[in-house]
Amino acid sequence: MINVIGLGYIGLPTALMMASHGVEVIGTDYNKELVATLNAGKTTFKEDGLDELFQAAVKAGIKFTAEYQKTDMYIVSVPTPYDKFSKKVDACYVVAAVKEVMKVCPKGATVVVESTVSPGTIDKFVRPVIEENGFKIGEDINLVHAPERIIPGNMVYELLHNNRTIGADSKEIGEKVKSYYASFCQGEIVVTDIRTAEMTKVVENTYRAVNIAFANELSRICRHDNMDVYEIIKICNMHPRVNILQPGPGVGGHCISVDPWFLVGDYPQLAKVIDESMKTNDYQPVFVLERIHEIMEEHNITDNRKVGLYGLTYKENVDDIRESPTLQMLDIQERHLARPLKTFDPFFTQKEIVKNQILDFDQFLSEVDMVVIMVKHDHIKQNWDKLKGKVILDCHNICPLEGVYHI
Length: 407
Fold this sequence. Notes:
Elements: E1 2-5, H1 11-20, E2 25-28, H2 32-39, H3 50-60, E3 63-65, E4 73-76, H4 92-104, E5 109-113, H5 121-132, E6 141-145, H6 155-161, E7 164-168, H7 171-181, E8 189-192, H8 194-224, H9 229-236, H10 259-266, H11 272-298, E9 307-310, H12 325-335, E10 342-344, H13 361-366, E11 370-373, H14 378-381, E12 391-394, E13 405-406
């Protein structure tokens, strides 16, 4: 039996996938309300294919509880934020989970950390917790790092098809854990050491962050001299060895906007390109606010309550708002004592999560003169006609209407 610790955006799909493929699974989360929701037969967030996977896992016998279980394998999938001052990973949730595991686990158990951490985190924080509880690693407890590699909006598919990395102290234990993931994973599963596994996951997200930063910086250069960044990127990408990404309003989610900071925190004198890239991405919501102000002045819009932000999530077609560029922008506004812009998101029409949020799309449009497309939900692509007559700032270059502004 496997006890999956943490039933959030990563832990829940992982638990469901294993259970639906014949592995006995019990999911544990300290949030009793979340556990109650799952036990009532409901999922806790929206994701394509998740409800079907949930039903398959329930049929296969998955159970949910707030209690840690006595079993032979644990998968720890809890958040790993970063300290905004030092930029180092904050491993407090991982440490807390491992401490609880140590209270119930038998000798011979395997603890798998799925949470993304910086290289050396398991050595610095997890091993001491295990040893302080009287266990000898490699004999009494086996320690493994198996970082997740999925993206909200396509989780179920990517769990099945993405390649995986298993980091372990010994090849034998790595292969044993690999067999559990191979129960559902159709991609290649590589077994390596723990520190390499830690580093590869952080490097993957850092690579993406640096490339996004280049596109965002390019958009500012082109805006400064009134050049079309999208046309320039399109032409450049015709080169066989060039693949520039598209600029956007910022970077959100719990991976690309967070994980690269781990390297900056641990290697401040070495990670110079990474540091500047993260600062570039973090500044992008400010750049969008500046564009909004420029366009408001051009159209004599003097009341920012007449400006509406479309989209609250960090990416399209999900209900995940972690590190959302829109929320970053609203936070910047609040710190400058400005009245918050109106917002609308089709994934949040039942509850208000920010000030000045409007739950009905038609009402949202009736109350604003200017619409800023922050997120490219499919919903907006189906409603272009309703935006006719509005001043539009399109942060993703997706709107086909005439006279649209871009970042």
